[in-house]
Amino acid sequence: MKRLNELFDIDNDMKIYSIHSDSRYVKPYSIFFCIEGLSVDGHRYIDDAIFQGAKVIVHSKDIEKQQGIIYIRVADPLDELNRVSNVFYDYPSKKVRIVGVTGTSGKTVVASMVKNVMDHCCKAAYMGTISLEYDGVKEECPYTTPETLYVQKKLFDMARRGVKVVAMEASSHGLALKRIDAVDFNIAVLTNISDEHLDFHGTRRQYIESKKKLFSMLSTNSIAVLNKDEEVFEEFKDATKARIMTYGIKNESEIMAKNIELYIDHSEFDLLLKGNKYHIICPVIADFNIYNVLATV
Fold this sequence. Notes:
43% of the residues are buried. The chain is of the alpha/beta class. The radius of gyration is 21 Å and the shape is elongated. It has helices spanning 4-7, 46-52, 77-88, 107-118, 148-160, 172-176, 198-201, 204-216, 233-238, 287-296; strands spanning 2-3, 15-16, 18-20, 30-33, 54-59, 70-73, 97-102, 124-127, 132-134, 137-139, 165-169, 187-190, 223-227, 243-248, 255-262, 267-273, 276-282. An eleven-stranded mixed beta sheet has the order 10-9-8-11-7-12-13-14-15-16-17, with helices on both faces.
């Protein structure tokens, strides 16, 4: 629960018990954000939200107003939803360490590996294509990168349960649609880039720009983990203020795989890391999975 004047610069201390962008789930004494989606405009459901108990409407268009309801007009309700949900749930992404993984392929494998590795030393979580998993909780995610409210609510619960590390898939759709704009990432990982999802993004350039957004969000205290064998490496390197860590097989990198041997049921290679060499045997096959292991390391 938060007071309205904690969420907006407004002289009203009404108690707010929940926030919503879907009128079907609105509860008494809540805020309804009128989000314009790809196919649905939330402004059309204001009456439904009020009937369900919403006391505050955040909107961007001219609308008919009812007595007893507080209306807050903003330039972009989605931007406000990101900001307000972060405040409402007490800035949850600042209470855990978040690893965002993006790329055309490998997101699920790398994020899952990170979660499984970190489970050996602390409570860890995974959010992505397969499911949402943390502290005994396992449920299906609505999207690879879920909507803003879902993400913030789950991060709040993770922090409350003592989760220390969250590995999250950051899809190009999720980045373009501002689903994780309010998430404070500590590490961002790029797996690879190929031509995909152009039906949504339109062009390869727009697709790449959506991926770069994750790295532009990083602070100087964060880490950008980049595949140095990707042709877009320099472009992603220039897109971030974070410290760069590189991995690769072909080009000289901080973390490298040499002498790779691929078998029918496993792979072996020499891992070069900080001046040391380790012989690795792992139950993955194909070169692309060697890259995924390096990214996880």
